[in-house]
Amino acid sequence: MDGINDRILQELSRDGRVSNIDLAARVGLSPSACLRRVQELERSGVITGYRAVLDRTRMGTGFVAYIGVSLNNHSKASQEAFEQAISRAPEVRECHNTTGTIEYLLRIECADLGRYKDFHTNMLGALPQVNGITTYVVLGSPKDARA
């Protein structure tokens, strides 16, 4: 990694659909040198894919919340069962295993508070591994740089 690769990654994070010619101009390389660097970043696994940034409100899933989940059992089997159940829930957009007072931090997206209540009660509340749930409803996101 060097400064040019950092600039390439920054530009691609902002606009993954930028043409190679425009990307090369933005980072100060010839198009062929830029393409070689991007291909090497892809081959080496630094770039793992390209995604579209979606407007969840327009899609009908504008209700966003973060949920802290604590488990009642800290065994590997309990964690794996929880993770398998969460992986099947379409409302869960992110699941992070954390340290501290909770085991998992979830980011969920759904249509509205009623749909969240259904998810909270009938999905999370039905999992035998779950000991505690703390919800933080997102009121706004003045900065969201996830790609």
Low-confidence stretches: none
Major sheet: order of its strands? 2-3-1-4
CATH topology of the largest domain: Alpha-Beta Plaits
The gross shape turns out to be elongated
- Mean pLDDT over the residues: 95
Strand proportion, as a percent range, falls in: 15-25%
CATH class of the largest domain: Alpha Beta
- How many structural domains does the protein architecture include? 2
C-alpha-based Rg, rounded: 20 Å
Mind telling me the CATH superfamily name of the largest domain? Lrp/AsnC effector binding domain/regulation of amino acid metabolism (RAM) domain
Could you estimate the helical fraction of the residues in percent?
Answer: 40-55%
Run of helices and strands: HHHHEHEEHE
Number of helices: 6
- The name of the CATH architecture of the largest domain is 2-Layer Sandwich
Q: Could you give the distance between the termini? A: 20 Å
Biggest β-sheet strands, sense, barrel: 4 strands, antiparallel
